[in-house]
Amino acid sequence: MQRALRIYGEVLRLVRRLPADSRPYYAKYARENFVNYREVDANDSAALDELFLRAYNHSLWVLNKYTVDQAAASKLKEICGGS
């Protein structure tokens, strides 16, 4: 749970780097996704790792869409375990 909260917080920090008019949409999108997956078994590390990696990859996609440097997601990569 603690790791998921750290990832969520980092995703919201990345949302702040987006253009002001797109921030509310992506903040809401991130929250909805984290809420939707709260039912995942906390003991299933493979499923959690897959979800966290998906969060990282999707964050990169959004950053690229708005031409924000991917290096901004380095902390998220570290938390998610992305390679």
List the helices and strands and how they pair.
Layout: H1 2-15, H2 23-36, H3 45-65, H4 74-80
Helix pairs in contact: 1-2, 1-3, 1-4
Domain Complex 1 LYR protein: 2-56
Protein name: Complex 1 LYR protein domain-containing protein
Family: Belongs to the complex I LYR family. LYRM9 subfamily.
Helix content estimate: 55-70%
Output the structural class: mainly alpha
Uncertain segments are: none
Order of SSEs: HHHH
Total of helices? 4
Q: What is the CA-based Rg, rounded?
A: 12 Å
| Percent strand | under 5%
Tally of strands: 0
Average pLDDT rating = 88
Q: For the record, give the distance between the C-alpha atoms at the N and C termini, rounded to a whole number.
A: 22 Å
Sheet bearing the most strands, described? Answer: none
- What general outline do the C-alpha atoms trace? globular
Domain Complex 1 LYR protein: 2-56
Protein name: Complex 1 LYR protein domain-containing protein
Family: Belongs to the complex I LYR family. LYRM9 subfamily.
